[in-house]
Automatic annotation (TrEMBL), chain A:
<dbReference type="InterPro" id="IPR050698">
    <property type="entry name" value="MBL"/>
</dbReference>
<dbReference type="Pfam" id="PF11718">
    <property type="entry name" value="CPSF73-100_C"/>
</dbReference>
<keyword id="KW-0507">mRNA processing</keyword>
<dbReference type="InterPro" id="IPR011108">
    <property type="entry name" value="RMMBL"/>
</dbReference>
<dbReference type="InterPro" id="IPR021718">
    <property type="entry name" value="CPSF73-100_C"/>
</dbReference>
<feature type="compositionally biased region" description="Polar residues">
    <location>
        <begin position="1"/>
        <end position="10"/>
    </location>
</feature>
<keyword id="KW-0378">Hydrolase</keyword>
<dbReference type="InterPro" id="IPR001279">
    <property type="entry name" value="Metallo-B-lactamas"/>
</dbReference>
<dbReference type="GO" id="GO:0003723">
    <property type="term" value="F:RNA binding"/>
</dbReference>
UniProtKB/TrEMBL annotation, chain B:
<dbReference type="GO" id="GO:0006398">
    <property type="term" value="P:mRNA 3'-end processing by stem-loop binding and cleavage"/>
</dbReference>
<dbReference type="InterPro" id="IPR035639">
    <property type="entry name" value="CPSF2_MBL"/>
</dbReference>
<feature type="domain" description="Beta-Casp">
    <location>
        <begin position="243"/>
        <end position="366"/>
    </location>
</feature>
<protein>
    <recommendedName>
        <fullName>Cleavage and polyadenylation specificity factor subunit 2</fullName>
    </recommendedName>
</protein>
<dbReference type="InterPro" id="IPR036866">
    <property type="entry name" value="RibonucZ/Hydroxyglut_hydro"/>
</dbReference>
<dbReference type="Pfam" id="PF16661">
    <property type="entry name" value="Lactamase_B_6"/>
</dbReference>
<dbReference type="Pfam" id="PF07521">
    <property type="entry name" value="RMMBL"/>
</dbReference>
<dbReference type="GO" id="GO:0003723">
    <property type="term" value="F:RNA binding"/>
</dbReference>
<dbReference type="InterPro" id="IPR001279">
    <property type="entry name" value="Metallo-B-lactamas"/>
</dbReference>
Amino acid sequence: MASTGPQQSLKRQDSSTTREEDQLIITPLGAGNEVGRSCVYMSYKGKTVMFDCGIHLAYSGMAALPYFDEIDPSTIDVLLITHFHLDHAASLPYFLEKTTFRGRVFMTYPTKAIYKLLLTDYVKVSKVSVEDMLYNEQDINRSMDKIEVIDFHQTVEVNGIRFWCYTAGHVLGAAMFMVDIAGVRVLYTGDYSREEDRHLRAAETPQFSPDICIIESTYGVQLHQPRNVREKRFTDVIHSTISEGGRVLIPVFALGRAQELLLILDEYWSNHPELHNIPIYYASPLAKRCLTVYETYIHSMNDWIRTEHAAKSNPFIFKHISPIKSIENFKDVGPSVVMASPGGLQSGFSRQLFDMWCSDRKNACVIPGFLVEGTLAKTIINEPKEVTLMNGLSAPLNMQVHYISFSAHADSAQTSAFLEELLPCNIILVHGEANEMGRLKQKLISQFADRNIKIFNPKNCQSVEMYFNSQKMAKTIGRLGEKTPGVGETVGGLLVKKGFTYQIMAPDDLHIFSQLSSTNITQGVTIPYSGAFSVLNHRLKQIYESVESSMDEESGTPTLQVHNRVTVKRDSEKHISLHWISDPVSDMVSDSIVALVLNISREIPKVVVESESIKTEEENEKKVEKVVCALLVSLFGNVTSKENGKLVISVDGNVAELDKQTGDVESENEGLKERVSTAFQRIQSAVKPIPPSTS
Amino acid sequence: MGTSVQVTPLCGVFNENPLSYLVSIDGFNFLIDCGWNDLFDPTLLQPLSKVAATIDAVLLSYSDTLHLGALPYAMKQFGLSAPVYATEPVYRLGLLTMYDQYLSRKQVSEFDLFTLDDIDSAFQKVTSLTYSQNHHLSGKGEGIVIAPHVAGHLLGGTVWKITKDGEDVIYAVDLNHRKERHLNGTVLSSFVRPAVLITDAYNALNNQPSRRGDKEKEFGETLKKTLGAGGNVLLPVDTAGRVLELILILEQYWSDKSLNYPIFFLTYVASSMIDYVKSFLEWMSDSIAKSFEQNRENPFLLKHVTFFINKSELDNAPDGPKVVITSMASLEVGFSHDIFVEWASDPRNLVLFTERGQFATLARILQADPPPKAVKVTMSKRVPLVGEELIAYEEEQNRLKKEEALKAALIKEEEESKALHGADINASDPMVIDVSKTHASHDGRILFPGANALRVAGTRGGGYRDILMDGFSPSSTSVAPMFPFYDNTSEWDDFGEVINPDNYVIKDQDMDETGMLVGGNFDGKFDEGSASLILDTKPSKVVQNELTVQVKCSLIYMDFEGRSDGRSIKTILSHVAPLKLVLVHGSAEATEHLKQHCLKHVCPHVYAPHIEETIDVTSDLCAYKVQLSEKLMSNVHFKKLGDYEVAWVDAEVGKTDSGMLSLLPCSAAAPMHKSVLVGDLKMADFKQFLGSKGIQVEFAGGALRCGEYVTIRKVGDASQKGGASGPQQILIEGPLCEDYYKIRDYLYSQFFLL
């Protein structure tokens, strides 16, 4: 994967001190320098999150999908969907059912409810060949079972990834996701709007400033007109057109902004009784079915609609707007206002009406949404002389075309203000046409010139790499934490990691502070032995430094304690038994006792003479030296001895000198020095005799 | 270094009184729950009144009176002014519950402990949170995070988790671990080892053996039998809590059996309650959420249940057997009281209690075994004034109005003249001047139309306040406690009733809100019908008469309280295994029982404080923070065990540039440490494992016999997970043979050696 300019310098500068797991990668798989198929991949510390899973409306079939082949879907832990729009959610059934993705998917309650309706409709409406179908209705139904819901502000933790969401405005149920992995916070805004409208709340400002903000840039440096001006233009255009006997076509995206426009129209009609004979049609059977969803999740909307709902009837039950199923049911007699989907005039009802009405000068087309590149809506905004109809013929474009943006995306001013409040260290722009995005980037660069904020606008599949040197903090608790140690003291205990939190504790506290428990295994082995117990005692004392004899209180049989670890007990005339608590050292001691007992009748131990013992000590030392050398060779390969008793170890051209007596290591290379010294310490402790007892 | 935690019960320990506890965390005072009972006995709030002003935040866990009933009163009378946190359903339904309580009371008495406005202004302080939302407190509570979690029992019911410095204090009462029709079970068992757990002992002695399905079937059949025999069924319920579950059960049963007996749901707030509930689907059970997502089916679009907000609607309903669901559950006041009195004498009728009545209420008396043959009740009714009374009242009103008009005029005049002369003005009537001076602060606003009667009613009510507060206690001779009735003792002088100008000042502020309320602009909407009842400016009075009701109808109690039974509570507690446990709310017997149980099986620190007894549950946990250096971590090899990763570290303490302690690798050889086997052996699993390795295994006398000779057994009591017990003990025994070592290796393989 490519890396854009600024990051490379960043990488070079940090590469010596950072390790791979401190690298955070963000890759747009869609919506990088384009609008549509939102999909952003992010990975940090072995955790992977994907935001949104949309399709590109201007393409069909596989071409509309984000670049899923760039990633391994099976590695993704969490997939977060911001809202129900097709360009944010429509490749989800494909991703869930046709790829190796096995992670968990989250969206808000309203999103999930509308998602199903919208996609089912999308599958029905999109007229593509069966091979080109990405998925069918069954896939959507199956995907519903896999989708989990999250409420606004609810914190969810999956595999150590913590995330929660904020209200984003835009459409009902739209969310901005904040993801926290090991203390690094990433905010993904999805589509958001900071302006409260008739039914939605404005996007919230998160409580915490994120380290990275992945933000939409749909409107680039454009500014929206104030809401009241916009609404007035909208109603004025419609009013004047119909009063001159024309027809008004409003191509809209079936859900979301359409509800806002309907609220405006219904209110305008209520206030203008003279218009009551002009019908408004809303050609979306979907919207009717979604009404219950809008009704139910009224608490996700703003206060105005809630009071309206509380005081009167449901504002989504319109008085002046009639639903209409299809073009067949539509009687085109006289002036009317028709809202129809799709918003881009690609096909469907809105296109059919457009074809019928486009050559009449009296008619008007009001485009209220964002213009997606490659759609007819985008084409006619430039007022071409002629347009191509669906049947392939050309027709003159005489109808008036108005573009009044009602799409609830943040404009330049909102974006600036939002970022000014958040002050993230890194800003990644997505979801915007390349030019608009470039301009916004320039504007933001100058806005944040004096602050250390980096701004990126990666293309699809272009990764942004960042490094976060996260400090690992541990909490020492319980018995170990009773006294805070001074510098230079040693601390030993269990380091327990859960998610990204570390705790150090004494083994005995393990079951108190975690769900883990420690276990003691007591072993008891019976061995046939018919000799005298005192012989055994004598033999053991010759081999082990510490052998204590006592009496078992219950049975009155004699016992011996070897090294305070293993108890030898006389069970009967013919049996003795060994008892000890499992632990590698005790296991070893017990093994040697077993060997001794088994051989006791065969061998009489040699009488050891003092002088010989000194000799053996020397021999022992030699043996130890040999073993140490052998082990070092097996670890490092090239080990040679120098005259001064030092060992020279060379690995890949790095040389280290080891003093066998003191264990001091000298080397130019820090890493090697450390490894050699650790290895030597471990070898030393392995070849030394076991201390009589460990405390 | 542990976070200091103190718990002081203010109400509801060693008995079943309402719940109210003071939990102080590093000096930040939380009032958790603020309950009152259906009798509204102010003496219960005595301890709260002393500390109310020092409270920094209020947390509410359920929407019923027992958990939040005292909130309006405490805000008004005790100077409680802290922000309140609750889930959205607790907030909305709590508000409706309080409206219902108030309206029910107002119907039968000159209830004046609080007004609708007090309820509104108290609930305006609520910040609503969603489940699992980590809310960071600021200011004095900096560093404290509060989060509500699913508790079951009632819609929006909350287990509160308060976290500071990684230590959790959990408040979890009235839990239900079982999934119900409209609610999910509690998530309490997902918390492990909190520093402090505060829970109730209410159900500790109550074990319910029957399953949900059987119980619901029995419930349905009981109703069907009564209705079939021509009787009516009365279900006394709470306003907005358990009633939801009952409605769903009835809906389902009626559909399944195609019954067409009418079901009426009658409370002052019935329809707005259902309206709210319809939009709270995301707070309900997974199955409800799922059916809505898939088919957009809202279970609270009811087919068989009709709502009424007015008893006359019920009276107009056609005769014949019917089911009436109505508040209050205690039968003390509300529609349930009146209907009970009407229906009790007919042996065909059935009163079915679905929850235990509150202590010393009519419901509790009727639930006694055997039930009383007759009970004394007070029937009270608000009737409009007629005849002479009305004339007298109107004259009084007119006189007051004139007086006020005069005052207002005088004030105006006075102000004008002040502006003109800046000197005193000599008025003809000295009394009026006196009053006008006290009224100067709120000039002419007193004349708001429509508000007069209300204000006057308030003034008149003022006369009773003392009596109600001090004189109210259940008399030892009466069967049921009742409100004493006194004549209006207010003083009169030559100019009419002596009025306290202070009443005007407060009421005047309230009036503005009342105005809003009528306009429908306020948040908690409630039914217009009931609004008209209360905002009715028609003069009225309360008439009371006492009568004895022969209880001939059948009385049945079936448990639909939606609380975990004693056994499950114990299981949950031993799973959660808090370091310290505080027991509240429950009869003395139950509390003691649970305490003994927990001491034995849960943890060694179990407290059951008495009212106003402050116990210190600061954890004796010591802790310090260290930084883990990169060098150290590169040498650590974690072993993965479920959610955890474990490793042994030996490190030397150093300091970072910022003065933080940090752990560096040891410069010298690390001292030997006693090795630790980490892991939890389940005998049954191990048996299977050995079986899969081709070893013959069987359980014999509590031990696992492996092969011919080797036995493995667990020693010691492993059921107690809390602080007292040590590591798990396993004993492996056998003769010296190859099998022994083989099996030992298999046993070792179940653990991580560190």
